[in-house]
Amino acid sequence: MMIFTSIYGVVDGYFVSNYAGKTPFAALNLIWPLIMVMGSIGFMFGTGGSALVAKTMGEGDKKKANSQFSLLVYISLILSVFIALIAFVLMRPISVLLGAQGELLSNCMVYGRILCFSVPFFVLQFEFQSFFVTAEKPNLGLYMTLLCGITNMILDWLFVAVFNYGLAGAATATALSQLIGGIFPLIYFSKKNGSLLKLCKTKFNSWVLSRTCTNGMSELLSNISMSLVSMLYNAQLMKFTGEDGVAAYGVLMYVNLIFLSIFIGYSIGTAPIISYNYGAGNQDELKSLFKKSLVIIVLSSVVMLFMSLILANPLSKLFVGYDENLLNLTQRGFFIFSFSFLFAGIPMFASAFFTALNNGIVSAIISVLRTVVFQVAFVLLLPIVLEVDGIWCSIVFAELCSLIVAAIMFVVNKNKYHYYGKEI
User: Fold this and answer.
1) Closest CA to 178 of 253, 224, 137, 117
2) Residue 424: is it exposed, middle or buried by C-beta count within 10 angstroms (0-12/13-18/19+)?
3) Residue 167 CB neighbour total at 10 angstroms
4) DSSP result, 248-281
5) What is the dihedral of CA 191, 197, 201, 202, to 10 degrees?
6) Can you give the pLDDT of all 424 residues of the chain as single tens digits?
7) Which runs of consecutive H residues, i.e. helices, occur in 321-340?
């Protein structure tokens, strides 16, 4: 589900870059992090809420779990509408703040404002990705996401390549896909269904809301921080290389988005299982899940490193092969950036793991250090010495430091949650 959700921006980028040009492509890459910031609300309610709902089901109270689930869906929908309206009104000053001027500013306004209309459904789509797993319907969630991804691809081809609607066409294609991703699950859970969850009448419960926000705060901060850091990267690249740097960074982010979505997807998929077994007191199963997860993530990290090194040249040519200078810049950045995949998986899993254990504080510490402190520090300091190469290197150093922090947290908390022992 996470992989196909990440395809939205990738497909938009391909068609915009090759059919609309370099400036619209740069505009897309400037604004997309803002859309992800708003969509991250769904991650908070989804991951934090599913941990609470799964724990409640593990304790045997299905009625209470459905009430909690319903409250979180309703609150997130109302909140996302409000945030989308604010973003629509402030799109111009936000674009200027990101460094857009002239034609680039106009393109940012077009892309951003169209997508504001679909933000509430984008939030729901992220939220339901977690709840589909909790409801024991992960396959249904996957099919829904596949439908959205395929719809986006077809509409991008139609609006951008066939009808030449440019950046506005790409934004419309993405918005319609997000609309499907939010409305269909809403309808499914509103009616009688074969899952463990169903939307129902509920009452406002401040404890449920605060516990969900606390549990999911690390995922919210992680996704918001990644988006804000992307904006900082874009600002640094505008300073050193102009629009070419932003376009090159966009290509790297597409691969980064797809690869990291594998780690995010695995973490989201296992979180309800971890929460359930923690709530039910199944320590042996918790130990088994921990061990298997570490093995899977380490092996996946190595595979991703080699895949990114192999795919660096062909993917760079696919997106920006029409401009030699831009192509060379992208290939150079791609090679350096690839080594970050070797270290990123464990910290991302660690954050989700502690969220699933209802320990939002440890999860938030890992998340904030990884996505804010380390990345901001390195992206500001390394370019002073290494210039553009310093920008590409910063993510590698940040992920390595995050891996060390995650390992420390695993060791410090092992006796509290009993996920590490003789069985491993």
Assistant:
1) 117
2) exposed
3) 26
4) HHHHHHHHHHHHHHHHHHHHHHHHHHHHHHHHHT
5) -160
6) 666 666 666 777 788 888 888 888 888 888 888 888 898 888 889 888 887 888 888 787 888 989 999 999 999 999 999 999 999 999 999 988 877 888 889 999 999 999 999 999 999 998 998 888 888 887 888 888 888 888 888 998 999 989 999 889 989 999 999 999 899 999 999 988 888 888 988 999 888 888 888 777 766 776 777 777 777 887 888 777 777 777 788 777 777 777 777 888 888 788 878 888 777 778 888 888 888 989 999 999 999 888 888 877 887 887 777 777 878 888 888 888 889 889 988 998 888 888 888 777 888 788 888 877 898 899 889 988 888 888 888 889 999 999 999 999 988 888 887 777 554 3
7) 324-337
The answer to whether the beta carbons of residues 160 and 169 sit under 8 Å apart is: yes
CA–chain centroid gap for 194, Å, is 28
Work out the angle at residue 309's Cα, subtended by the Cα atoms of residues 306 and 313, and round it to the nearest 5 degrees: 145
Beta strands in 17-117, from DSSP E residues, in sequence order: none
Quote the DSSP letter at residue 390.
H
- Contact call for residues 36 and 125 (beta carbons, < 8 A): no
Q: Tokens standing for 203?
A: 């009452």
Cα 297 from chain centroid? 17
As to burial, measured by CB atoms within 10 angstroms (0-12 exposed, 13-18 middle, 19+ buried), residue 102 is exposed
Q: Distance of CA 399 to CAs 107, 184, 250, 373, Å?
A: 33, 36, 19, 11
Separation in Å, CA 45 to CA 105, 219, 400: 32, 9, 29
The b/e string for 173-188 (b: 16+ C-beta within 10 A; e otherwise) is: bbbbbbbbbbebbbeb
- Cβ count near 57 (within 10 Å): 25
Closest CA to 97 of 202, 298, 231, 212: 231
Q: Torsion angle, CA of 175/308/393/13, rounded to 10 degrees?
A: -20
| Residue 399 to residue 349: CA distance in whole angstroms | 13
Residue type, 159: F
Based on its alpha-carbon atoms, the radius of gyration of the chain, rounded to whole angstroms, reads 21
Both tokens of 38, joined, read 């708003």
Which tokens sit at 34? 């803002």
Which residues, including other chains, have CB under 8 Å from residue 57's CB and lie 6 or more apart?
65, 134, 196, 276, 279
Extract the tokens encoding 163: 């009808």
Tell me, yes or no, if the pTM score tops 0.85. Answer: no
| DSSP class of 191 | S
**Domain chopping of the chain, boundaries:** 2-417
